[in-house]
Amino acid sequence: MSELKVQVGRRAFLKMAALSGVVGATSLMGSNSAVREATENELKEPFPGSKLVKTVCTTCSVGCGIIAEVQNGVWVRQEVAQDHPISHGSHCSKGIDSIDYIRTAKRVKHPLKKVNGKWKRISWDEAINEISEKMLKIRKESGPDATMFLGSAKMGTEQSYYFRKFAAFWGTNNIDHQARI
């Protein structure tokens, strides 16, 4: 029996990969277990004296709906807004977990510098001056294209505009967005 050799070109491979991705995504959307309503025994007990506030997640610029539980003016917990027109009752892992990063004792609240293998708290002025001196040294020694400016999905339109202008004034076109990485 002779062997049948089939060669697949790059374009054909990409088409097949895209098609399989679409099939996988649509089969997930058709599943009844992807999103379901919470039952009463799954709901968390509210904190005493807390109130529920409908708002949007600020982790990125999508604007998924969340219901924040606020107690004495402090955001203590959050749930996904099931009736929100953008997120439709779902949430990404960054957004659903962001409250833990806000309230944790491990959150960095001040500039830190590693000195002799240990973290040392420094002032904001020290941090800004040291970083700016290092950046100017890099630009002087290696040119403006030795740096890369990476934007964030957290930035709004105006912030992105100024961020891009800063990179241009710095003298480089090396700018990208974290959503592409």
Q: Can you walk through the features of this model?
A:
The chain has 181 residues and is an alpha+beta fold. The protein folds into 3 domains: 57 residues, N-terminal domain of TfIIb (Single Sheet), CATH 2.20.25; 34 residues, no CATH class; 38 residues, no CATH class. The protein has 4 helices and 7 strands; from the N terminus they run H-E-E-E-H-E-E-H-E-H-E. Strands 1-2-3 form a 3-stranded antiparallel beta sheet, covered by helices on one side. Strands 4-5 form a two-stranded antiparallel ribbon. The chain has a two-stranded parallel sheet with strand order 6-7. The longest helix has 20 residues. GO terms for molecular function: 4 iron, 4 sulfur cluster binding; electron transfer activity; molybdenum ion binding; oxidoreductase activity. It comes from Caminibacter mediatlanticus TB-2. InterPro entries: Mopterin_OxRdtase, Mopterin_OxRdtase_4Fe-4S_dom, MopterinOxRdtase_cofactor_BS, TAT_signal, TAT_signal_bac_arc. Keywords: 4Fe-4S, Iron, Iron-sulfur, Metal-binding, Molybdenum, Oxidoreductase.
In CATH, the topology of the largest domain is named N-terminal domain of TfIIb
Number of strand elements: 7
Strand order of the largest sheet: 1-2-3
The proportion of residues in beta strands is: 15-25%
Question: Any guess at the CATH architecture of the largest domain?
Answer: Single Sheet
Structural class: alpha+beta
The major beta sheet can be summarized as: 3 strands, antiparallel
- Domain count: the total is 3
Mean pLDDT rating: 77
The N- and C-terminal alpha carbons lie at a distance of 48 Å
What sort of overall outline do the alpha carbons produce when their principal axes are compared? flat
Uncertain regions: pLDDT < 50 for 5+ in a row? 33-43
CATH superfamily placement of the largest domain: ADC-like domains
* Broad CATH class of the largest domain: Mainly Beta
Amount of helix: 25-40%
GO cellular component, one term: cell envelope
Subcellular location: Cell envelope
Cofactor: [4Fe-4S] cluster
Keywords: 4Fe-4S, Iron, Iron-sulfur, Metal-binding, Molybdenum, Oxidoreductase
